[in-house]
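Q: I'm writing up a methods section and want to include an example of the input and output format. Could you take the sequence below and give the corresponding predicted structure tokens, formatted cleanly so I can copy it straight into the document?
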Amino acid sequence: MRIDRREALALLGLGAATPAAAQTAKPLGVTFQHGVASGDPTQTRVVLWTRITPESPHAQIAYTWALNPVDRRAGGAKKGAGVTGPDRDFTVKVDVGGLDAGRAYTFAFTAEGVTSPTGLTRTLPQGPTRDAVIATTSCALFPNGYFNAYQAIADLPRVDLVLALGDYIYEYGGEGSYGMDSPVAKVRPHDPPHEILTLADYRRRHAQYKTDPSLQAAHARAPWIVAWDDHETCNDSYSTGGQNHNPEKGEGDWDARKAAALKAYYEWMPIREPADGQTLAEASERSFRIGDLAQIVMLETRLTARGKQLDYDADVTLVDGKPDIAAFRSKLADPARRMMSPGQEAWLGEQLAGSAAAGHAWQVVGSGVVMGRLTMPDPETFPPGALDSLGEAGRKRVMAWSPLAKAGLPWGLDMWDGYPADRERVYEIVRKAGARPVVVTGDSHAFWANELSDAQGRRVAVEFGTTGVTSPGAGDILTGFDVGPAFTEASREVVFNDQKAKGFVLLTLGHDRLKAELMAVSTIHSKTFTTSVLKTFEAYPDGKGVSALKEV
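A: Here is the clean output for your methods example:
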């Protein structure tokens, strides 16, 4: 499964330029300001996407599209036409069928005599497949920095797929909001300049993100498989609300906000539309087969069944001035606390079992949040001055966590750690399926290499958490202390953690091994940057499971 970068760039006419350079002149008031994208490839289908910007907000715009094979074999070209308008914010999505498996294609759109940038895509292979190269990304906060990680993905010598694991956009906005203290925030403020709540707001925010040339380049480079986490709706969202949804402050009905966010998401992302009878949330949970090599399974753990997260401030009670750890553990372990519904768990089991029965080497499970056990480091063990960057109030707040850390409580209750009974159900599903999962996760703004095990200590999977494209991690806040090794020491499942770097994970799958490269960009505060491999890990098939991680 291979796309050669030099051949691809030559065919695209890009050279070292971004896709925006491929746009032709504007004769009739129509532009392609948001690039092109493709996604959800199968052996015979792929979704093509663009957005046409007209001068009139009330226009109906006719367009054509063309898809052509990169190789010189006869046949395979496809073309078609359609109309878009304000009902879907002038976005265009075409689900092209009848394609050849494992074949690379270029594609472009035309409207009113104007041609879009050209994109490169590929169907998934059928049958024997030597290897696959997959980039995983998450957490791109527009004001906090330049999207250099996306540009680094576009510049890779080979990438077959991009898995976007959530927080593709952020809902925040306004002066003083999250990320607005960045050195580049003044030249990259959020649009609209306030927290997004309505359909028009979510559309404007998606539109702003897709004007970024580095993001456009990454979308034009390879097909994407996307999933949302929380910020596509609001921070720490769950099925019936969210931490950053406040009706008492005039933010309206949660279901209305969620519906607006998901409508905009489906308009602006290269994701396949729901089948008849499916909800938007249900349609986001899907799987993809890479020949005889692997199955990709994308989970939805936010908006379908997740219960409200526990909170240390609200849910830890004090007895004689000390936290009641036993009472909190009882709340945490409640088996009724869910990330996924029984139906979702059954679907996951079917996907894993089918893949294992087919003899696939790997099952790549895409999760919005980290699955491994991440124990809170004890701040009393930090060196003197480690918390000075937090200020006195922040230092006191972190030090107050020390009893929780000494008790071995988890760092993040919004992650799978906040739903341990549900996680054990998932691990039992894995065991019954005889699967070899490689869990890939986002959300945490940090790199993780973890070995996942069940309550009996049996290794279930390996996990690679990708850091943010730009979003700040703990290392950006604790500027005088490298907290990554503290997490590694405190957490028995963590092999490696880095809380400072920005970048992505590059996963290479073969039948006899997998390789995960933690790719870091040198800066997000300048458009000039370098890319390096921070760490490399390998794992191997081990009977019916996965080996321990090996650093190479």
